[in-house]
Amino acid sequence: MALDFNDPDLEFSDLVYAYQSWVMAVINDEKLGGEETLLTDEIADDALNAMRFLPGEVTSAIETSLARVYDVDADELASLLFPEG
User: Fold this and answer.
1) Is 6 domain-assigned?
2) Could you list the residue range(s) of the whole structural domain that residue 22 is in?
C-alpha cells in the first residue's frame, strides 16, 4: 500500500518505516542474496518521497544502523542506494 502524503494522519514513524523498508530491501537484494526479491517500485517510490520530509540526519542514521546490523560497508551501501551519486 503506497503512502498517501496528503493524509493528515501520516506520522513521522510512517516516513521512517518507508525509508527503512527501502534500505533493508536494497541490502537484502544486493548484498545478502536473499532468495526472494524484496524491492518493489512501490517501496522505492514511498522511500524516495519520504526522503523529502525526513531530515538528512534521520536518513543517515537509518543507513548507518542498518549497515552495521547487516555488516555492510557504509560507503558501499550508499553506492547501492544512490548509484548515480
Assistant:
1) no
2) 12-81
